[in-house]
């Protein structure tokens, strides 16, 4: 069991007592992991539906950009005390991206029809949509560099956030090439990007919470049980 913002005594399979410690950074990282999985799922769902059934589910693709900056902010939270200037720059970029994403989504659903970009048209929302995407990528890259340096994610996963950020623009650029091969493959890069975000979110969530195995007698205010 996990108690958010507190500690909870638990027992593992060996009967060893321990404590889950959940602080603000842990909650932030957990929320970021969930956001990455949801945003990635929305993109992957949109791409898969278009590739298989040539049908785009409503809403999911348009709202997905709201979740990606939250994922970057959560990744920043997983750094614990290793928050360098580079990481803070990534956090700022993600914060700006989130504001732009909120403006673009509200504009798409609440604004007039002429605000919605179609094809090569540029509307009042185009700068916000562009800044949301670029801000999320830049934020993920900067925070990902720090994650790699500090090994804030376990094992080889420490390289994954930076790798995702580096891969996004080439994947998007490859869409035209995919379309030349087969029209259905136009959405393949979007599917891959969505899956990458989902994997990143799963890694972030799986990492948390950390289990500190602490004898029950060592907890403050607890007397050892009599034998």
Automatic annotation (TrEMBL):
Membrane-spanning segments: 28-53, 59-79, 91-110, 122-147, 159-178, 184-205
Keywords, alphabetical: Membrane, Transmembrane, Transmembrane helix
Source superkingdom: Bacteria
Entry annotated with the keyword Amino-acid biosynthesis: no
Entry annotated with the keyword Isomerase: no
Name of the protein in question: DUF998 domain-containing protein
Organism name: Intrasporangium oryzae NRRL B-24470
Phylogenetic classification of the source organism: Bacteria, Bacillati, Actinomycetota, Actinomycetes, Micrococcales
